[in-house]
Amino acid sequence: MKLISSKFIHSIAPQLDLLNTIGGGVAQPQLRVDQHPNGVIVRVAMPTVLADSFRVVLKQNQLTVFSEYRHQPDDPLAAPLFVQTLALPANLDATRIDAIHENQELRVRIPFAKPGQQREIDIKHHD
User: Fold this and answer.
1) Does 119 reside within a domain?
2) Per-residue pLDDT tens digits for 69-125
3) Which domain holds residue 97?
4) CA–CA distance from 36 to each of 1, 42, 43, 78, 82 (Å)?
């Protein structure tokens, strides 16, 4: 006599895996900001987290770096593994931010703005 069906076990396994992750099943993230002559680099090291789990979002002058866990890539249920929001100072050029993940580390590179830098604004014509 089966008390628990295999279908039930397969349906609940992702939730158990997620709860294990939330309960400490991943490495502690390490974040640091390094200043270089051309700008700053935000470094996030999370050795057990896949590169595809990271996201970098810029909204106004707020840079948010986060990682989330999904049992399957298309799974609607996601658990945040790490979230950090940084206020960017005016001397950084937010239009030229880029990010790379290599050697188990996410690097978000933010160059300094050039002093006195100006940008010409295109004028749209509606005739």
Assistant:
1) no
2) 887 878 888 888 889 999 999 899 998 999 999 988 999 999 998 877 676 778 777
3) 6-111
4) 67, 11, 13, 35, 25
